[in-house]
Amino acid sequence: MDRASLSRRLIDEIRSDINFFLHAERRFQADRATVECPGPANTGPGAAASSGGVR
Description:
Helix content is 62%, strand content 0%. It has one helix at 3-36. The protein is rod-shaped.
């Protein structure tokens, strides 16, 4: 394998690692926002069965 191929492979691996952590951070932030700021449908025992609300 020549030097250019090794460089491209290294860059691709680094890019893949960065994207993995970016996606993991987005999932973490979304999960955290859901837990910290529950919407009206998540605020009581019978809330999921309520009707008439716009989602």
